[in-house]
């Protein structure tokens, strides 16, 4: 990516972080959002089964609200935004945070391998999701656990449409966009798309619906290298 385009992307991404208040997203004032996030984080942590000896990294860690909750192993978080990492460092001083592009990880990250790798709600925000999965592949050992989560945009949009029709969407979710692909999401994601772009390099071991099987607003997927 050319430097000006890269700088513009970072500026735009920071604007979206502030607009959607990512700093406080996991402690959202809306109970529904807070509940869904708590279920998503709990499933990610359960899939990881972290040990004290693990090297663990989160790609696109934001304010550190997943990597900071692990509490075991040597923890590293990577994000493209210096703004959000300044917040993460204050919250989680035991985690090593590094500025880096998920599509082109810095050498201090890419030259190592990790036992557990997280990439949560990131692929829909980047220009080339397949490239991010290629970068993660380079970080993984044969037996590494890779945990990825993505939104189920189709169902989310259906529910939003229902609330809009009932004229209560704005009052229930004042900070949410009517269509995330109109603003912050560069790709329309669901489980099928994740399987399609991951299938060449990864074997999917388990996929869970968040918050419930009958209400799959998010998917949390445990993968290993093929």
Biggest beta sheet attributes? 7 strands, mixed
Number of self-contained structural domains: 1
- pLDDT averaged over residues: 93
> Could you name the CATH topology?
Rossmann fold
Helix content: 25-40%
Architecture (CATH level 2) name: 3-Layer(aba) Sandwich
Descriptive account of the structure:
The chain has helices at 3-19, 31-48, 82-91, 107-110, 129-139, 153-165, 169-172, 191-198; strands at residues 55-59, 74-79, 96-99, 114-120, 140-151, 202-212, 215-225. The protein has 226 residues and is an alpha/beta fold. The longest helix is centred in the N-terminal third of the chain and has 18 residues, at 31-48. The protein is globular and about 50 Å long. The protein is 38% helix and 25% strand. The model has no long low-confidence stretch (mean pLDDT 93). The protein has a single domain, classed as Rossmann fold (3-Layer(aba) Sandwich), CATH 3.40.50. β6 and β7 (215-225) form a beta hairpin. The chain has a 7-stranded mixed sheet, with helices on both faces.
């Amino acid at each position: 990516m050319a430097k000006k385009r890269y700088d513009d992307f970072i500026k735009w991404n920071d604007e979206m972080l502030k607009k959607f208040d990512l700093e406080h997203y996991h402690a959202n004032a809306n109970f529904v959002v807070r509940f869904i996030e708590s279920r998503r984080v709990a499933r990610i942590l359960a899939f990881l089964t972290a040990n004290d000896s693990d090297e663990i990294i989160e790609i696109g860690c934001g304010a550190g609200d997943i990597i900071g909750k692990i509490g075991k192993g040597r923890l590293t978080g990577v994000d493209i935004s210096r703004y959000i990492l300044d917040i993460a460092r204050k919250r989680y001083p035991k985690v090593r945070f590094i500025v880096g592009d998920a599509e082109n990880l810095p050498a201090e990250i890419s030259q190592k391998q990790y036992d557990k790798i997280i990439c949560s709600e990131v692929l829909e925000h980047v220009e080339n999701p397949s490239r991010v999965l290629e970068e993660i592949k380079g970080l993984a050992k044969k037996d590494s656990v890779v945990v990825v989560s993505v939104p189920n945009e189709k169902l989310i949009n259906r529910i939003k449409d229902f609330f809009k029709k009932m004229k209560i969407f704005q009052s229930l979710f004042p900070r949410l966009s009517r269509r995330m692909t109109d603003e912050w999401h560069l790709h329309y994601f669901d489980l099928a798309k994740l399987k399609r772009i991951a299938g060449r390099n990864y074997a999917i071991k388990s996929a869970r619906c968040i918050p419930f099987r009958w209400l799959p607003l998010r998917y949390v997927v445990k993968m290993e290298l093929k």
